Amino acid sequence: MKRRWSSFSEWLDQRTGVQTAVRQFLYEEIPASSGWHQIFGSVAMFLFLVQAFTGALLAFNYAPTPGDAYNSVRYILTELTGGRLIRGLHHWGASMMIVVVVLHMVQVFLWGAYKKPREATWMVGVVLLLVTLAYGLTGYLLPWDNRAYWGTVVTTRIAGSAPIVGPYLTRLLGGGGAVGVVTFARFYGMHVLLLPPATILLIALHVFLVRKHGVAPAPGDELRSREKFFPAQVFKDTVAIFAAFAILYTLALVARVPLEQLADPTDPSYVPRPEWYFLFLFQTLKLFPGPLEVVGSVVLPGLAVLTLILVPFLDRGQLVKVTKRTFAIGVVVLAAIGWGGLTARAVATTPKPQVAEIDYSAPTDWLQLTPQEMAGIAYFRQEHCVSCHAVGDGSSKLGPDLTQNTIHKDAAWMIQHFKRPSAMRPGTAMPPIQLSDAQLNSLAAFLLKLTPANASALGNAPDFATAGALVYQASQCGSCHMVNGNGMKIGPPLNGLAQRRSRNWVEEHFVNPDALSPGSIMPPYSLSAKDMANLTAYLFSLRDTGASQ
Amino acid sequence: MDGPTAPATDGITRRNFYVGAIYGIGALIAAALGIPAAVYLLLPPKIRQADQWIEIGDVTSLSPDSPTEMTFRHNRVDGWKVTSENTAAWVIKHADNSVTAFGPQCTHLGCAYHWDDTKSEFICPCHNSLFSIDGKVMAGPAPRPLDRYETRIDGKKLLIGRLMVPERQA
User: Fold this and answer.
1) Degrees to nearest 5, angle at CA A310 with A307 and A314
2) B114 pairs with which residues across the strands?
3) What ipTM score was computed for the predicted complex, to two decimals?
4) pLDDT in tens, B145-155
5) Are B19 and A231 a contacting pair at CB < 8 A?
6) Helix-strand-coil split of chain A, %, nearest 5
7) pLDDT digits (tens, 9 = 90+) for A323-382
8) Residue among A60, A78, A79 whose CB faces B41 most closely
9) Do B22 and A235 lie within an 8 Å CB cutoff?
10) Chain A residues with CB-CB distance to B15 below 8 A
């Protein structure tokens, strides 16, 4: 078997040269000082491959137009098995890639590995860093949620404010300052058609240059015998790749990537924030008010990039040991402090959102429930029903699965059963539920809505919403108002309230309706601060029934 | 035992360890990415829409044992979109007032077939599959009888449910 394989590989090598090429690549000689500090380039390349792979998988179920993008992302997240993992890998992979590319650059900078004759390798590397950032910028828009939309509005305005080229950049990015279908198409085209081949070409050039000049030696290497790239250094690279992959995979599994509500250009309350790695630029902008803004938005970043590119020509001294490169170490420390300070300041000054954010990356069927059914969820949680009942997840527990419609009777029967379980089902181990009739009614209404298909989607109802629904029920708002088609029409229907009124207005209106809507027959409500917050947050989560779900 | 051969064997085992780890980690990463990718692409999406019954017409207007093509609109879930589209059913009212409704596509390659009154057979024009009035294959390449819709009669109204396609039932 082994002989047959070797004769085949010989045959293949004579015709393609592939084995010889691989051998030459692997048995390349590297300096004796090579080691763990040189793993970052390989990790960056690996992360690029993960991004390409997961990006292609996402594209298989993604509709690249503003009309459909959001729905298709939700489809990937909520309906496709593994969709959340794939998107998680792509999302966190983007962040990790930036981290690793920067670490790679810092290492090369600290060791002075850009010195003659490796200046071109360094400059190609700087371009690769910019390309990586361009992926982040263009990919940010693609989910087309509020975050994506507003973030891109700001980005395109900054590009437009550049001196001389500003108007042309605006045109290039697809429009007169408005983010719409054209901008979307341009960003998508850049993200998937232009940048990947550019990256592949640049990586090929970068690696070719690394090979041409050899891995950069450290002082003293000329006295030591050279080593082979394979297997010792490849092993170190592989271990580092594995560590990076393990972190990425854990993030993708554990840290949920949120999806905000569909992009809403009319939303006045939204505070846009860029991705974390652009926050320092965002904060820099604030240091230059008024006509100086262009200094922070274009001049300083431009100078920084130019300086980076010119690093090999600014530092032309003799190669010394990394521990003796105090100036370089100082530059890195100062840059880290500057970056960290600006980022921390930007994070600290981020205002709390006015409206409780709903995570649309999970099914949000609960948004269609009536306030009564929502209150039922609150009682359902309060009474710990799941300690004895399964809810469509197939687990075997003491009581029956509550999603099975064979146990769904009418509400009157269920209320009697809640009060005295053994009277309706002799021999049952279920304890009586100590709630009022109205409360039991809510619980029954919710349970009747449960099916195996919607159980987990209804379970996603956030606590602020169920608590808000409790206040809604207790205050009997439904005797005058309508929510999700349920209730009376004496007062205005409450769906879409967030689009019509500010949070302050609503809260003041509870206290003194007559002052804000003269002639209103709504009585004043004195609610506790917590009840007020929950009720308002709940009402603000109710979308206009005509809009997206 | 610390003869001159010891460093050599040490070198070989260390080399073997390196190579084994490189391949092992590579395989692990490939599996951790490949398996979710296969699942993501191959498993059907979770169905979150309950089946609906659609009213398609008046049963009393049908003459017995005479197939009639009835068109209706239904909501088709197509990935992330729900499209409302026209589709058809061949409906036969039997002597006992029960109703059968066939899906409008030939079970061979999906062409639209029609009822030929003179021959009393369903004829598919593409490859000449012939079906009897109860949907059985009489001739041609069709691999299975015509697909049926679930049907229900509510007073005079004929309601139509899911199309029972053998592969999808599994």
Assistant:
1) 95
2) B123
3) 0.80
4) 999 999 998 88
5) yes
6) 65, 0, 35
7) 999 999 999 999 999 999 999 999 998 877 666 778 888 888 888 889 999 999 999 998
8) A60
9) yes
10) 231
